[in-house]
Amino acid sequence: MKLVEIIEGKAKILIPDPAQFSREGKFDPAWSPVFYNPRMTFNRDVSVIAVSIISPSSVLDAMSATGIRGIRYALESNVKDEIIFNDKNPISIEIISKNVKNNGLVNSKVVKSDANSLMHQVKVEYTDLDPFGSPAPFLFAGISSLRRRGYLGVTATDLSALEGKSKTSSIRKYGASGGKLSFSREAGLRVLLAKIAREAAVQEKGIKPLVSFYNDYYYRLFVRMDDGAKKADATLEKLGTLYECEACGYSFMSQDNCIKKCPYCSGNVRRFGPAWTGELNDQEFLDKMKERIPSFSYLPNIGRASKLIESLIAENKYELYYRTDVLSSKMKINMPTMEFMINCLGNAVRTHFDPRGFKTSRSISEVRECIKAGSTNLQT
């Protein structure tokens, strides 16, 4: 098998030559014997910034593949001590070992093990879960691998289950029932956090989301564990249900799981949950990420990362987002421009979740009035 070198961040990584595994001129990373996805570079760029703030003494890269994520943490994120690289694929182990050596890592260990088995045996300050597909089977063990007040990083690509599009998968993997809502991208992230919260509570730990976002086709989040039964109980109090009115479009969250009518217009509501109803991001952590941006000016994606962080900061004081196209359709009028909606509402921002979406503290009646005014404005 031919290996080729790629550069990502400060790391130089050997990966299987994509040309050897192409089919009819096309290549999917899943076809390679060792998974490396260049589309996840932005994920890793943002993660490197976040982990540099955590500055963990020890790291477990539970599903290492080529080792790119853990190696970048070692070179770019101020990891103080040991990094454990793990994969159950023997070919991956060979490539990881070469990459660790080529990048001059000293305090590292390469392990060939089932991820869940290993996570029940180690104790580290930060564990990274970046599975191919759903993280659900790995969350309990991932939390178990953490020392007191440890940190967990999670990537999820199974959006059909998390967003409620696949109802059976939603129930099976995340215990979430109901159906897809118009703000599905935020709903999926909140369902994922709720799953992590429940898995942590079993181990008498609470969670504090530090940074959570959607990008391209995946979710990425970082949470801190707070030990103790009381912390776990307080976390569970932040679980509830997401609602959306079928008639007027009003969206809201509640700890009451049995609401059937819209509090605004008395229309029927659709529901999805359990879901996290607390903040998705920690303001102090976001501010630190923003301050750290100049230190990562060498990254090609740094402008994009900076824009994401700015968006998360702006969105953090608001709850669920609305979509202009959905509300306009319900009102049977033309869709106003996003610029008009933001200006009309005043207390409102665009959301990173969806280019058609915005967040606001205004009431649904005020939102609908702006939709109406914006539609009229298009006709004049």
UniProtKB/TrEMBL annotation:
Keywords attached to this entry: Metal-binding, Methyltransferase, RNA-binding, S-adenosyl-L-methionine, Transferase, tRNA processing, tRNA-binding, Zinc
Residue positions binding Zn(2+): 245, 248, 262, 265
Lineage summary: Archaea, Thermoproteota, Thermoprotei, Sulfolobales, Sulfolobaceae
The keyword Methyltransferase is annotated on this UniProt entry: yes
Family: Belongs to the class I-like SAM-binding methyltransferase superfamily. Trm1 family.
PROSITE patterns assigned: SAM_MT_TRM1
EC number: 2.1.1.216
InterPro entries according to UniProt: SAM-dependent_MTases_sf, Trm1, TRM1_arc_bac, tRNA_met_Trm1_C
Protein known as: tRNA (guanine(26)-N(2))-dimethyltransferase
Binding site for S-adenosyl-L-methionine: 44, 69, 87, 114-115
MF (Gene Ontology): metal ion binding; tRNA (guanine(26)-N2)-dimethyltransferase activity; tRNA binding
Organism domain of life: Archaea
Biological function: Dimethylates a single guanine residue at position 26 of a number of tRNAs using S-adenosyl-L-methionine as donor of the methyl groups.
